């Protein structure tokens, strides 16, 4: 299996520190608002990578942090006249709701910054003792000049960064690029006791402390959006390797930007949709397919047309899955009319996914499989349950368990809902018939018109009343 490592800028063979165990850390949300669909791309692609590693037999210890104290949370609390705890609690709950709807597997752990204060303090103390950190009146900074390899992930040159620095001038810093590890408390803001006085952690140190505590000093995979390469991940390396004196991360994975009208989607630009908004229009499976159809490292332009096309693609797979389920309910009859090379499709799927998680090609393998299975079914009457079981197994292994673009359990739920819906419509048809016999045409027409608004068209004839759904 090959993974493109942002650090080395090449594809490398994946060899975890302690196989078959894999430690995997993903930068999670800052919980001051609903996350946008650009964030969702990172979360979903990390989920697919995790699922594929599990498919390959690895035991994945997947950790995603929650940043529940931050300037943005403080500002939001002031705007809404609520405590930071209330803001963080509300949007943390919303985050869990939305990732569940997006069918993202729960993390093994979701450590929170506010629960990790002591771990942060202990790491800062080590950095201070080793000369990497300095205290200025209760603010503790990291001295980037003391870390000789600063810039090795992003490839940025310190001298060039200093020359073009847009960092706010702060005379208390030794260097304009030095970053804060501990922020001195401001009046009215949340704070915790520390050796440097009351204050709160800087953003970068939180991830270093949490990943070290929950996954160890060297982790296999660290993932996040491209925008986190510098300064966030660069600073994580500087902190972690200075404190622990070992390599921090073996494989860095970064996800490309989601753009809208070819501009980066971000809250600061105001050109974004929340994942919650998109989920109200499109299924989670369609959103996941939309993302999977572009390689995780490449840019992707948001398009409702492409999402609609993805919805149709999901429908093609679902139609075959429903056909399979229906056939498996029948008595075992018939025979396999010809050999179907299931092994070939598994090999093709694994070949492309082993090459830096090439999901667009994996999707193509699945659609080719669906097309050829449908062709075989249409041309042959004598097919037994073994064939349909093999089809189901392939779709579950690949489309469901890895990509998350179909779910067999939901097929049962949807069918059950449709049966109940049909019975309710038939009940209303009978009520309407009774009303017509009583010459209560106003109420009879009201039922017909309201059903029509819901997309249910009633068709009256001499034989009785039938209904159909609008397409």
Rounded to the nearest angstrom, the distance between the terminal CA atoms is 44 Å
Helices, by number, come to 15
The main sheet comes to: 4 strands, parallel
- Main sheet strand line-up: 4-3-9-10
Shape by Cα distribution: globular
Which structural category fits the helices and strands? alpha/beta
Helix and strand sequence: EEEHEHHHEEHEEHEHEEEHHEHHHHHHEE
Integer-rounded radius of gyration? 28 Å
DSSP strand count: 15
| pLDDT averaged over residues | 92
- Range of helix content: 40-55%
**What share of residues are in beta strands?**
5-15%
Low-confidence stretches: none
Question: Could you explain how this protein is built, in words?
Answer:
The chain has helices spanning 37-55, 71-80, 84-101, 117-129, 158-163, 203-215, 229-244, 275-279, 284-292, 304-328, 342-354, 359-379, 385-400, 408-437, 441-453, and strands at residues 2-5, 10-13, 21-26, 59-64, 133-136, 139-142, 179-184, 199-201, 219-225, 249-255, 258-260, 263-264, 300-301, 456-461, 464-469. The strands form 5 sheets. A 4-stranded parallel sheet has the order 4-3-9-10, with helices on both faces. It has a 4-stranded antiparallel sheet with strand order 5-6-7-8. The mean pLDDT is 92. It is of the alpha/beta class and 471 residues long. The longest helix is centred in the last third of the chain and has 30 residues, at 408-437. The protein is built from 15 helices and 15 strands. Strand 9 (219-225), helix 7 (229-244) and strand 10 (249-255) form a beta-alpha-beta unit. 38% of the residues are buried.
């Amino acid at each position: 299996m090959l993974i493109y490592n942002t650090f080395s800028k090449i594809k490398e063979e994946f060899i975890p520190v302690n196989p078959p165990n894999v430690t995997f850390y993903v930068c999670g949300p800052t919980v001051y608002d609903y996350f946008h669909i650009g964030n969702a791309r990172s979360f979903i692609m990390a989920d697919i990578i995790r699922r594929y590693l599990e498919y390959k037999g690895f035991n994945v210890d997947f950790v995603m942090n929650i940043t529940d104290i931050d300037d943005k949370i403080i500002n939001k609390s002031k705007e809404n006249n609520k405590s930071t705890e209330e803001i963080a609690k509300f949007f943390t709950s919303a985050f869990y709701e939305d990732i569940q709807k997006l069918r993202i597997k729960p993390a093994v752990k979701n450590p929170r910054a506010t629960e990790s204060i002591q771990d942060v303090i202990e790491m800062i103390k080590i950095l201070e003792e080793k000369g990497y950190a300095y205290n200025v009146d209760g603010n503790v900074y990291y001295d980037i000049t003391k870390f000789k390899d600063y810039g090795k992930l992003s490839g940025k040159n310190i001298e060039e960064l200093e020359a073009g620095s847009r960092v706010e001038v702060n005379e208390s810093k030794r260097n304009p690029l030095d970053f804060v590890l501990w922020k001195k408390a401001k009046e009215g803001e949340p704070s915790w006791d520390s050796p440097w006085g009351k204050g709160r952690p800087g953003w970068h140190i939180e991830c270093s402390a949490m990943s070290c505590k929950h996954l160890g000093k060297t982790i296999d995979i660290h993932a996040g959006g491209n925008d986190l390469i510098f300064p966030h991940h660069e600073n994580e390396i500087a902190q972690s390797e200075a404190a622990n004196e070992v390599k921090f991360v073996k494989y860095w994975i970064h996800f490309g930007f989601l753009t809208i009208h070819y501009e980066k989607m971000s809250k600061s630009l105001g050109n974004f949709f929340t994942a919650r908004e998109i989920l109200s229009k499109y299924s989670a499976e369609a959103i996941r397919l939309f993302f999977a159809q572009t390689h995780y490292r490449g840019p992707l332009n948001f398009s409702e047309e492409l999402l609609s096309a993805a919805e149709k693609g999901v429908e093609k797979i679902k139609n075959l899955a429903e056909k399979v389920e229906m056939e498996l309910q029948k008595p075992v009859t018939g025979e396999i009319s010809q050999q179907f090379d299931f092994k070939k499709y598994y090999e093709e799927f694994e070949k492309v996914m082993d090459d830096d998680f090439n999901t667009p090609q994996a999707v193509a393998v699945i659609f080719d499989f669906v097309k050829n299975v449908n062709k075989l079914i249409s041309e042959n009457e004598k097919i037994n349950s073994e064939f349909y079981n093999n089809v189901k197994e392939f779709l579950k292994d690949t489309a469901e368990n890895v990509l998350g673009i179909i779910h067999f359990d939901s097929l049962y739920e949807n069918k059950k809902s449709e049966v109940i819906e049909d019975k309710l419509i038939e009940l209303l048809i009978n009520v309407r018939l009774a009303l017509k016999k009583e010459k209560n045409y106003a109420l009879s027409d009201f039922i017909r018109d309201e059903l029509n608004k819901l997309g249910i068209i009633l068709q009256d004839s001499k034989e009785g009343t039938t209904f159909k759904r609008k397409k």
